[in-house]
Amino acid sequence: MSRTKLYKKIFIVAVLGMIIHAMADTSFAALIKPLLDGSFIEQDKEFLSIIPILIIFIFIFRGLGSFMSNYGMAYVGRSIIRDIRKDMFDKIIKKSSQSYDQSITGKLVSKITFDAEQVAEAATKAITIIIKDGLTIVGLLALMFYYSFYLSIGLILLAPLIGLFLKIMSSKFRSISRDIQKSMGQLTNVVEESIIGHRVIKIFGGQEYETKNFHDVNTNNRSKNLRLIFIQSLSIPLMQLIIALFAAGIIYYVTSANYLDEISVGTFMSYLTAMIMLFAPIKRLSEVNVILQRGIAASESIFALLDSESEPDNEDNHDIIDEISISFKNINFKYETSKDLVLKNISFHIKQGETVALVGKSGSGKTSLLDLLPRLYKPVSGSIFFNNQDILKLDLGFLRKQISYVGQDFTLFNDTILNNIAYGELNKYEIIDVEDAAKKANAFNFINSLPNKFNTHVGQNGILLSGGQKQRIAIARAILKNAPILLLDEATSALDSESESLIQESLNKLAANKTSIVIAHRLSTIVNADHIIVVDNGEIIEQGTHNDLLNKSGAYFTLFNSQFKN
Fold it and tell me: Is this model's pTM higher than 0.70 or not?
């Protein structure tokens, strides 16, 4: 059975429970008339003895209906939210890198947590109240009209006034709810940044600044919520006052006129009981407007995310590539948040099995160039080819399977060392393969010295390991993948000289039969590269072998000599 069909069936059961609950409440009010007229006034002892049994049955059915409606709606609501959260996470995980650059992490987290909860409350509590209390009100009103159409006619005149009042309040509630969502996103972001950047905050004395920043955002969130509560607290009593004035008018009219001669005591008390019983569901319905408007505002935010574009892909193109050569042709690139080009007219070719090194000052565009190959970003103009195939026309998953990567900002997940090395699709490997990759990355000895060895948890982003240990695990991950293309972005930057020399030998062996692009901080590690490209301000200013570039006495010569002098 599909989930949708299951949800529909449970929803129908829940609505059936609401109908039973509403009928039970109406039956209790209707029971007052025969109780007074037939039992107490006419002294019908036989009927009087049945009353307690009827009351018990009414409340048994009321309780059953309440359980069916509450649990059924909760099941459907929470299940829908689970599915929405899954869809949201799938969308976030497939967003382009450009989208991540423009998104605030805290706001994305707030969408999945806070916004989803608002929709959950609207999908469970609000809908339950609307249907169950709505049916109860309909049942009680029907009873009141049945007993006295004349007295109840005023309710028809009252309905437009209540409708206008609710319309005004709805727009205010929704507007404030949007502001609360934004403030929750800001609050989450400040907390997240403070936790992630705690070292920088401590060392640079940022505690006072961050505390003030959090206080401002927290106070803003408080004021938004208080504003919502103020309007809610004012609107509910006003709604109840309107209804109470109507009820008081009915009672005054009945008791001051000769109307009592026209109806029995039982009829009047049953009518009065039904009118009093209207207060509770009407109160809940007036309160539900806040929940509903919060849910609507949150759903707008959620569906804006779900409707956003994912990374472009060509899922049908899985062409097999036996040998991989790479060509960059007239590449121009800029970030969406920037006006200026980061890369300008970049062209070069890498043959199968060659190693090309990118060198240059920080901020010259080397990492941006590397990010174009796995299609983390798309060039403004120009093309990148695998053999003669434009990478934009290849299946994205297939393309990225051809690439291993170790960056300067190495990422470890809050999991075991084993699962970090054998991450993602690599989890199909045997432990012996993981151990072999760790040995080649010079990580095996330190891993084996840990109490839990490969089952040691590394903490969030590897916080429990040193920088060098984290980088060696990242290198082991790339070794295990054994993809035909290898991207190294300062892959040994966190290692000391001794560890770097040990790993450099492993990296050289790893790159032997691969097409490699290397960004190196230490130029001594790329002297044997087949081709060296010098990048400055997004442009290629020199290229050639190590010896060729030294003989030119140009930019590479200056960079190389400055490092060795230091």
Answer: no
